[in-house]
Predict the 3D structure of the following.
Amino acid sequence: MIESYRFGKIVINGKSYSSDVIIIGDHVKANWWRKEGHRLHIEDLEEIISRDVEVLVVGTGYFGLMKVPEDVKRFLAEKGIEIIVQKTADACKTFNMLKESGKNVAAALHLTC
């Protein structure tokens, strides 16, 4: 579970991270780098796409500056993955709520801007 988030820092299952992360199940991939810093590409989500994920929650940053293009949303929909795009603070709450409800949820979280 995500315990806390503030600009540039997130605490997941008692461990603190200061770089962007992907969460799949109970696994956290730290230092998540994207093809472009503030634009999400399909290639950035390969780990998530290869898993049996029902919902992907994307945190677009504290101020919401990371963009999720329509082609990425369409691609995920074609794969049967629902996508929820929110500023990271809201995305953390949504992720926890979905995880608690038993959904197979993943998160891709941009921690700054």
Remarks:
- The chain has one domain: 2-109.
- The domain at 2-109 is CATH 3.40.1230.10 (Hypothetical Protein Mth938; Chain: A,).
